[in-house]
Amino acid sequence: MPKYHFEIVDGFRLEDPVGLECANDAQAKDLARNIAHQIAADIAGHSARNVVVVNDNGDEVYKTKI
C-alpha cells in the first residue's frame, strides 16, 4: 500500500516524517478530513491552518482547511 504524509501548514510546515499507509488517494483524503476535524475540535478560534496530504513521490494530492 502507498504511504501518505499528513502535514500541518500555517505559514510554517510541520512535516510528517512517518506517514501512514492508505489504500489510495481517496482514503488519504478521508483521513485528512478526519485529522482536520479533530484538530479544529482541539483548538479554539479561527485558524489559517491546513492539513496537506503528500504522497511518497512528494506530490501534494489534497489540502483541507482546519
Proportion of residues in extended strands? 25-35%
| Main sheet makeup | 5 strands, antiparallel
Number of domains: 1
User: Mean pLDDT across all residues, rounded?
Assistant: 92
The number of helical segments is 1
Q: Percentage of helical residues? A: 25-40%
Total E-strand runs: 5
Low-pLDDT windows of residues = none
Span between termini: 26 Å
Written as H for each helix and E for each strand, in order along the chain, the element string is: EEEHEE
Task: Please tell me about this protein's structure.
The mean pLDDT is 92. The radius of gyration is 11 Å and the shape is globular. With 66 residues, the protein is α+β, with helices and mostly antiparallel strands. The longest helix has 18 residues, at 25-42. The chain is 27% helix and 35% strand. The protein contains 1 helix and 5 strands; from the N terminus they run E-E-E-H-E-E. The protein has one domain (3-65). Strands 1, 2, 3, 4 and 5 form a 5-stranded antiparallel sheet that branches.
Quick summary of this structure?
The chain is 27% helix and 35% strand. The protein contains 1 helix and 5 strands; from the N terminus they run βββαββ.
Identify the notable features of this structure and list them briefly.
single chain; 66 residues; alpha+beta; 27% helix
